[in-house]
Design a protein that fits this description.
184 residues; single chain; transmembrane helix; 36% strand; alpha+beta; 5-stranded antiparallel β-sheet; transmembrane
Length: 184
């Protein structure tokens, strides 16, 4: 009878304190690994999101400026802010004709950190079309430099875009040189 009592007693016995501590330590290590992986994935996603927004804004803004400059006939030097120093945001005003042959003025300027396109029949009556840069991106620097060869005119664009996020900041510079369509 004592054998039977001992067998049943050993089956009903609980875990020792060493076993409990071991299991708790293993669970804490697993939990730390899972939480660390989660934060790493979250940070990578945010960096990818801001990098994608930065690249997309650069592509849209540069493409639109290049297209409008190619379609322009001349630069409005009076209303433009050209060849500015770093930190001073430039403004480019272009003159030309629309598809119907009417005078058209196109203006690129920075408003509240966004590159804005405005258009109208004259420099005094422009209507804001909208922001070209994305909502997560700010224009940190925008410089327009005129190039005149005597035979044609061109504009060199230097633009710095920034994407600011939580614990993250990314800044990239973009350059382009475009010949005015009406100058050759």
């Amino acid at each position: 009878m004592s054998k039977q009592y001992t067998k049943r007693n050993s089956l009903c016995r609980g875990m020792s304190i060493v076993e409990v501590i071991f299991y708790v330590v293993v669970m804490i290590i697993l939990l730390i690994t899972v939480v660390s992986t989660f934060f790493t994935i979250r940070t990578a996603y945010q960096e990818m999101k801001y990098s994608s927004e930065l690249a997309n804004s650069a592509m849209v803004t540069m493409d639109r400026m290049q297209r409008e400059i190619r379609n322009a006939e001349r630069i409005d030097f009076i209303n433009s802010v050209l060849s500015t120093a770093t930190g001073v945001l430039g403004t480019l005003v272009l003159e030309g004709e629309d598809s119907a042959g009417s005078e058209q003025v196109t203006k690129f300027s920075v408003v509240n950190g966004a590159l804005v396109l405005s258009r109208g029949p004259s420099a005094g009556s422009l209507t804001e079309i909208g922001a070209l840069s994305g909502s997560l991106v700010t224009v940190a620097n925008l410089v327009f430099r005129p190039i005149n060869t005597g035979r044609s005119q061109a504009i060199k664009i230097e633009m710095t875009l920034e994407a600011n996020g939580v614990n993250m900041q990314r800044s990239d510079k973009y350059y382009g040189t475009i010949i005015l369509g009406g100058s050759y």
